[in-house]
Design a protein that fits this description.
Largest sheet: 4 strands, mixed
Distance between the termini: 83 Å
Number of domains: 3
Strand content: 35-45%
Helix content: 10-25%
Order of helices and strands: HEEEEEEEEEEEEEEEEEEEEHEEHEEH
Length: about 300
């Protein structure tokens, strides 16, 4: 009898050890939704296949998904929200918790949409929708680069495209009433180029102009030297833009037919901002800046 009891206790102990070891191998993904609501589902998937779905707590909006180590796509859906909130490439490690930023549930209150195409469309391209400075939704671009956010209320939005190895592009979109809007986005391939800060999304170039020898008026000398410095800086900006690539194998210039590149860049360069201006020995030096994306950015000038 004692032998049977011992075997039962030993089996239970072994089962407990196995369960404990198994749980230690798992990690988890945690987060929350605002405001808390009933029927909010959080789904973890791999390669398009659902691994596990849990419900967010109705009282505090929190959720936790136990998962084996690996990389997952997490989707948050709510009955009142016009679109899911997606997090791609979430890494889960054994015994560790990956915490996602809070998801603000947008209310279903509109019939408009924002759609467009991302080009080029490398693997892993996603488009994010922001409203009032907050991330509202994220979708993966389709195989043809198209994206769409539907059932949107009137308001001001920002759409932003991103892909590994490429500089983000973003654009402001205004929706009035139930009128839908189209906004294409352009990605530029990140490669080291003197004068480009890919992180800040700006192009900068300096130019110098010398004082003319045959003019004695100080003000006139300065203005003529500054004009020459601006022309020099614009030429340097053009040289920088000519090095930008749309993908690892193609420069922006070669991807645009005929005189399109020259016309496009000429219009773009007119929007420069002087960020520095000072005298140097024998002349004037200026530094110009232009945005890569957003309003007035290079990507807004590129043809579809």
């Amino acid at each position: 009898m004692k032998s049977i009891s011992f075997r039962i206790i030993l089996s239970a102990f072994c089962l407990l050890i196995v369960t404990f070891c198994h749980s230690k191998k798992e990690g988890s993904v945690e987060g929350s939704v605002v405001p808390p609501a009933a029927g909010v589902h959080v789904t973890a998937s791999q390669s398009g296949k659902t691994v596990l779905t849990v419900d967010a707590n109705e009282q505090d909006g929190k959720y936790a998904i136990p998962l084996a180590p690996g990389t997952y796509d997490i989707s948050v859906t709510a009955p009142s929200s016009p679109f899911p909130m997606n997090f791609t490439g979430v890494s889960v490690s054994a015994g560790k918790t990956a915490t996602l930023p809070p998801v603000e549930i947008a209310q279903r209150s509109g019939a408009a949409s924002i759609s467009g195409t991302v080009s080029p469309n490398p693997a892993g391209t996603t488009v994010t929708l922001l409203a009032e400075g907050k991330e509202r939704a994220k979708v993966a671009a389709a195989t043809d680069g198209k994206y769409e956010f539907t059932e949107l209320p009137e308001g001001n939005y920002t759409v932003s495209a991103s892909s590994p190895g490429y500089a983000d592009d973003q654009a402001e979109v205004r929706i009035a009433g139930e009128h839908s809007s189209a906004q294409n986005l352009k990605l530029l391939y990140v490669t080291p180029i003197d004068g480009i800060d890919w992180t800040k999304g700006v192009i900068r170039a300096k130019g110098r102009g010398r004082y003319p020898a045959n003019i004695m008026n100080r003000t006139a000398m300065y203005e003529l030297a500054k004009r020459a410095a601006l022309s020099d800086a614009e030429r340097n900006l053009l040289r920088i833009v000519e090095q930008i690539k749309v993908d690892p194998n193609h420069e922006l210039k070669s991807s645009m037919p005929g005189d399109t590149f020259t016309t496009t860049v000429r219009g773009f360069l007119k929007g420069f901002k002087i960020v520095d201006e000072h005298e140097i020995e024998g002349g004037v030096e200026v530094e110009l800046e232009l945005p890569l994306n957003g309003s007035g950015g290079l990507t807004r000038f590129l043809p579809d």
